[in-house]
Specification:
The complex is a heterodimer of chains A (369) and B (371). By secondary structure, chain A is an alpha/beta fold. Chain A contains eleven helices and 16 strands. The model of chain A has no long low-confidence stretch (mean pLDDT 86). Classes of the chains: A alpha/beta (369), B mainly alpha (371). Chain B: Its main location: membrane.
């Protein structure tokens, strides 16, 4: 018995293992990566690491000590397209670089136009980087955006970008992250998209949506059309739509509910017919004087519905002309058609007859009439 | 030691049939759902899982009939059946063939899990170290007998509950239009998918080795059916969630869709749910490895009763470590998994029903002789 217990105790050091450890304050956690395309398959890569300041307190009473940052903030350098930046900068790292808590990856427009194929294949293979990280196309240089020091906030830049994108996806922007992007990139009859962001002065701003065909950036949708895009893409709430009436006056509707159903006819024909029927419930948030009254709520909802319908059909026609399908119309047709003819879909997509039926219900118009 | 009955101290409670069946079925293939069925049946993969689940229950009924018919003649396990029907030499050869299949199962499990550990958690973990640690734990458990193994598979069931609850976090990602249109594939394609699905359920047939250890076989049988039903519901769940979660193009490029799914989830406090889950999956490995080792030990002891069981166990563990280490690349592991699926389905769906027929025939002939 004693020998057995001794034997078991001998096993304990075996179980502790000799595998490399990562102590939290002895690694640099890469939180954001940026890629700028230089041409010829070369990119300028930038990684950012959160750097927390020690010493000085918030009120400037640091006990006479100067504030110090204990870790480096960012690294950048030239490498080839598709290279792991953490590996590339290992030689310049103060400590080991680890990518497990990655939050954001951004690409500049040039790289997006060249194609993200190498980047995506690398990221899809990587077991360490979480799939739910935020990705975006930057109007301008990602290096400048990531390394600039003139932001109003001192929050690490990668988290700033992620928070901005996430709070927007709760409102007007469709859900986007790396997984959604990879999913529609590898899926058939659909095209991926990601948000388009820009550094404007001392802060960041969302500029709209960058649409891709396969892995290449094709066109963008402006911020003002986001509501129309999202209502066709997925059910949501808490979005707001600024409706410009022909008279030049504005009505802003905030939706509490929006659902979309697609009906498909003749899915294997030369020009399939797709009808989107939408139910939108919302309240009037802001209105020009004399556009809304409690009595005439139904006329308001009619006007908003007409405007949405006009814009939605215009947007889909534009997407069809460019041959991009971020709304997954192809997939909708596939899911509603038996023995779907996928080979000819690319030719049939521009001829698809798309129309919308929108029903808007204004449930309240505010606390004053 | 009496030959025919097993002393009460070593008997399994009927509910262990549920836990043993469940844990043996959930070997490692559930991590790949719905990927093995996607190639054949696309969005109709879940139909294949359903069909193969019911087929498994049918086969389980046959197996129980086979074992129960043996009751008047002696011990109700496959070793005794083989020896009675085919004589000592031929019976032992057949026993060794079945034991080879069990060894294959053991090696497959060890290989697959060491690969998963290397890919997801510890890139520089050597297969040798991993399999030695697992085998020491296994040896410790197996020395305690089948009741310990039953208890371990009960723990496995408990520990897996939180893992499968994580599927709840996928709800915002699901797109059920991925499952449409239903029945868009031909019958032959769906049958091919069911064949792939049948491999997922393999492991339940090991009941032919430990059936005599159930004190109340009538009640144990019901629990075994329930075990198959539970894993069928689980597989169905994983298949439907897996198909609705990702497009087919993305699914065909993923090796372990369930792990990829966990990787996407952002569970509060656990940003890397997949790393935690990998550790949990050791619990799916250990009861299965223990059952296999126990069966092999018993089988060797049945053929060579003069030697001590303990030495057989050590030999089996060393052999499985050696075999596991000889398989290194992912391709070899995939091939041995395929081989296991092929031989397993052949044994379950062809050999055991034939044996059942032969047993019936044997009985009829003997009755005629007596008359």
């Amino acid at each position: 018995m004693k020998i057995k217990v001794f034997f078991l105790l001998m096993l304990i050091p075996l179980l502790s293992g000799c595998l490399p450890t990562s102590t939290l304050d002895q690694v640099l956690m890469v939180e954001g990566e940026g890629f700028d395309y230089l041409g010829n398959g070369k990119i300028m890569g930038t990684v950012v690491i959160p750097s927390f300041e020690q010493g000085a307190s918030q009120n400037g009473q640091g006990g006479g000590m100067q504030s110090i940052s204990s870790t480096i903030r960012s690294l950048s350098g030239v490498t080839y397209d598709g290279k792991s930046l953490a590996d590339k900068f290992q030689s310049e790292g103060q400590e080991i670089l680890r990518v497990g808590s990655m939050k954001t990856m951004i690409y500049d427009k040039k790289l997006a136009k060249f194609g993200l194929k190498n980047q995506l294949s690398f990221r899809n293979r990587d077991p360490d980087v979480p799939s739910a990280i935020s990705i975006a196309v930057v109007d301008g240089s990602t290096k400048e955006l990531l390394t600039a020091t003139d932001y109003q906030t001192k929050v690490p830049i990668a988290r700033y970008i992620q928070h901005m994108i996430l709070q927007n996806t709760q409102q007007n922007y469709p859900s986007t992250n790396l997984r959604y992007f990879l999913d529609s990139y590898y899926g058939a009859y659909m095209d991926p998209f990601m948000p388009l962001i820009k550094k404007s002065g001392d802060h960041l701003e969302m500029q709209g949506l960058a649409l891709f065909r396969n892995d290449k950036y094709i066109m963008s949708i402006p911020d003002s059309k986001m509501f129309v895009f999202k209502m066709l893409y997925e059910p949501f709430n808490q979005g707001f739509y600024d409706c410009l009436l022909p008279s030049g006056k504005h009505i802003v509707v905030r939706n509490v509910e929006s659902s979309v159903k697609y009906k498909v006819e003749d899915g294997n024909g030369v020009s399939p017919k797709v009808v989107a029927s939408l139910q939108i419930k919302g309240y009037v948030r802001q209105a020009s004087p004399k556009t809304v009254s409690t009595k005439a709520a139904s006329t308001v909802s009619k006007k908003v519905a007409d405007d949405l319908k006009h814009n939605a059909e215009k947007m889909v026609r534009q997407l069809q002309r460019k041959g991009v399908d971020p709304l997954r119309i192809g997939d909708t047709v596939r899911s509603a058609t038996r023995h779907f003819d996928g080979k000819t879909w690319n030719e049939r997509y521009p001829n698809t007859n798309f129309s919308c039926q929108i029903h808007v219900e204004v449930i309240q118009t505010g606390i004053s009439s | 030691m009496t030959k025919d009955t097993i002393s009460k101290a070593f008997q399994l409670s009927p509910i262990s049939a549920f836990f043993l069946t469940f844990s043996l079925q959930l070997g490692s293939d559930f991590l790949k759902l719905p990927q093995p069925l996607i190639d054949q049946a696309g969005q109709d993969a879940w139909i294949g899982v359903l069909i193969s689940g019911f087929a498994t229950m049918g086969i389980l009924w046959f197996i129980f009939r086979l074992l129960d018919h043996e009751k008047p003649y002696g011990r109700t396990d496959i070793f005794s059946i083989h020896r009675r029907l085919f004589g000592k030499k031929a019976g032992d050869v057949l026993n060794f063939i079945l034991m080879g299949q069990v060894l294959l199962f053991l090696v497959c499990l060890l290989c697959t899990y060491s690969e998963i550990f290397q890919v997801w958690l510890f890139p520089n973990l050597s297969t040798l170290e991993f399999s030695i640690i697992i085998c020491i734990i296994t040896g410790y458990v197996v020395l305690g007998g089948i009741r310990n193994i039953g208890g371990l598979s009960f723990l496995y069931f408990l520990y897996m509950i939180p893992i499968f609850q994580s599927l709840n976090f996928t709800v915002p990602y699901l797109r059920f239009s991925n499952l449409l249109p239903v029945f868009d594939h031909s019958l032959s394609a769906i049958m091919e998918a069911s064949y792939m699905g049948a491999k997922l359920y393999l492991g339940f047939e090991l009941v032919i080795f430990y059936y005599p250890f159930f004190g109340q076989p009538d009640r144990a049988r019901k629990w075994a059916y329930l075990g198959v039903l539970t894993s069928m519901i689980l597989y169905l769940n994983l298949t439907i969630v897996g198909t609705a979660f990702a497009t087919q193009g993305a699914l065909t490029r993923t090796i372990w869709p369930f792990m990829a799914l966990l990787k996407t989830l952002q569970i509060p406090f656990f940003n890397h749910a997949e790393k935690l889950a990998t550790l949990f999956f050791v619990w799916s490995l250990i009861p299965d490895v223990c059952v296999c080792t126990w069966i092999l030990t018993r089988g060797l002891n049945f053929s060579f009763p003069s030697m001590k069981q303990k030495y057989f166990m050590i030999a089996v563990l060393i052999l499985s470590v050696l075999l596991t280490c000889s398989l290194q690349t992912g391709n070899q592991i995939r091939m041995i998994n395929q081989l296991f699926g092929l031989t397993g389905t052949a044994i379950v769906y062809i050999y055991l029903p034939l044996l059942f027929l032969y047993q019936w025939f044997h009985k009829k002939v003997r009755e005629q002789h007596e008359n």
